[in-house]
UniProtKB/TrEMBL annotation:
<dbReference type="GO" id="GO:0008652">
    <property type="term" value="P:amino acid biosynthetic process"/>
</dbReference>
<dbReference type="InterPro" id="IPR006219">
    <property type="entry name" value="DAHP_synth_1"/>
</dbReference>
<dbReference type="GO" id="GO:0042802">
    <property type="term" value="F:identical protein binding"/>
</dbReference>
<dbReference type="Pfam" id="PF00793">
    <property type="entry name" value="DAHP_synth_1"/>
</dbReference>
<keyword id="KW-0028">Amino-acid biosynthesis</keyword>
<dbReference type="GO" id="GO:0003849">
    <property type="term" value="F:3-deoxy-7-phosphoheptulonate synthase activity"/>
</dbReference>
<dbReference type="InterPro" id="IPR013785">
    <property type="entry name" value="Aldolase_TIM"/>
</dbReference>
<dbReference type="GO" id="GO:0005737">
    <property type="term" value="C:cytoplasm"/>
</dbReference>
<dbReference type="GO" id="GO:0009073">
    <property type="term" value="P:aromatic amino acid family biosynthetic process"/>
</dbReference>
<comment type="pathway">
    <text>Metabolic intermediate biosynthesis; chorismate biosynthesis; chorismate from D-erythrose 4-phosphate and phosphoenolpyruvate: step 1/7.</text>
</comment>
<comment type="function">
    <text>Stereospecific condensation of phosphoenolpyruvate (PEP) and D-erythrose-4-phosphate (E4P) giving rise to 3-deoxy-D-arabino-heptulosonate-7-phosphate (DAHP).</text>
</comment>
<feature type="domain" description="DAHP synthetase I/KDSA">
    <location>
        <begin position="45"/>
        <end position="339"/>
    </location>
</feature>
<protein>
    <recommendedName>
        <fullName>Phospho-2-dehydro-3-deoxyheptonate aldolase</fullName>
        <ecNumber>2.5.1.54</ecNumber>
    </recommendedName>
</protein>
<keyword id="KW-0808">Transferase</keyword>
<comment type="similarity">
    <text>Belongs to the class-I DAHP synthase family.</text>
</comment>
<keyword id="KW-0057">Aromatic amino acid biosynthesis</keyword>
<dbReference type="InterPro" id="IPR006218">
    <property type="entry name" value="DAHP1/KDSA"/>
</dbReference>
Length: 352
């Protein structure tokens, strides 16, 4: 007797528009293309030691859930970025996918209505729209790439990307990174180990063949050359920090064979801040102090920041406070602005 054995726990399979269809509707403009290209090259110059004086700062909301708040943040950040551009290169966090330890809101692409309906087709279009608008404001964008299909829809608008602590060990994400066109930061594992990120850097620099989709959404074999622009992101782990001088020295020694002049970025949030958003200021200042003391392997910092400080709890259809994170707690804008000016004032950060 024939019995059904396939898709026993699947209740719906719904096709998405292809990347080509979405990009035709929301095309890359010359203005955005120029900004992405120039920013990627500027980051490469920092990473490979051509630009040895500036620091890269990835700063912005833990995740974007409200386009209007994101645009207001981008406009404020643009003013600061322009004022400090000769000393620090500022790129805005525009994170649309959130890996969850168990369950929770998975980000704007997965659930753009914030109500559990998970209209992913709309989420992809909304993410691309936000990236276009922020690039058109003159702010380059950074994002974490989680689902390996998503880069086909938005990667042309991203100047720097992260592979997160939960996915750095994933072969799928290492292969994906090997074909991405922007510099990639691999976070250390959630338990704090450097080795998984270093293994990821090695894997991503090499060519790969893997299954993905093409511009028309057809399942395809993807062949890559390997990505030469990888680095490690120290975010602490297992309840411990890893941004001390000793930690930075160990990370520097661990990646010495990768041929990168400045391979270390410090995430000032997560375990490095003990999940206390205000401690990001202390962490950032300590890292810049090490840079002042000659530790030039440090390429930059990552900060979680929004218009309002802290975080709020998301529940489907619950009214939310404007400009406040619904994922990790963030620095306020006023604290962020002051910190960025302080970092740029460091005597070790000299104009290019």
């Amino acid at each position: 007797m024939f019995r059904p054995v396939d898709n026993q726990h699947v209740i719906e399979i719904k096709p998405l528009p292809s990347p080509r269809q979405v990009k035709t509707k929301l095309p890359l403009t010359e203005q955005a293309s120029s900004l992405v290209y120039e920013t990627r090259q500027a980051i490469r110059n920092i990473l490979h030691g051509i630009d040895r004086e500036r620091l890269l700062v990835i700063v912005g909301p833990c995740s974007i859930h409200d386009p209007d708040a994101a645009y207001e943040y981008a406009d404020r950040l643009k003013t600061v970025a322009d004022a400090l551009r000769e000393r620090v290169l500022i790129v805005m966090r525009t994170y649309f996918e959130k890996p969850r330890t168990t369950v929770g809101w998975k980000g704007l692409i997965n659930d753009p209505h914030l109500d559990g309906t998970c209209d992913i087709a709309l989420g992809i279009e909304l993410a691309r729209t936000i990236l276009l608008n922020i690039n058109h404001r003159g702010m380059p964008c950074a994002s974490e790439l989680l689902d390996p299909v998503v880069p086909q829809y938005i990667a042309d608008l991203v100047s720097w990307a992260a592979i997160g602590a939960r996915t750095t060990e994933s072969q799928t994400h290492r292969e994906m990174a090997s074909g991405l066109s922007m510099p990639i930061g691999f976070k250390n594992g959630t338990e704090g180990s450097f080795q998984v990120a270093i293994n990821a850097m090695v894997a991503a620099r090499t060519p790969h063949h893997f299954v993905g989709i093409n511009a028309d959404g057809a399942t395809s074999i993807i062949k890559t050359t390997g990505n030469p622009d990888r680095h490690i992101v120290l975010r602490g782990g297992g309840g411990r920090t890893n941004y001390s001088a000793e930690d930075i020295a160990r990370a520097e020694a661990a990646v010495a064979g990768e041929g990168l002049a400045r391979p270390i970025m410090v995430d000032c949030s997560h375990d490095n801040s003990g999940k206390n958003h205000q401690r990001q200021v202390e962490v950032a200042r300590e890292v810049v102090a090490q840079f002042e003391q000659g530790r030039r392997s440090i390429m930059g910092l990552m900060l979680e920041s929004h218009l309002q400080p802290g975080r709020q709890t998301w529940e489907p259809n619950k009214p939310l406070t404007y400009g406040m994170s619904i994922t990790d707690p963030c620095l306020s804008w006023s604290d962020t602005e002051a910190l960025l000016h302080d970092l740029a004032a460091s005597p070790a950060v000299r104009p290019v």
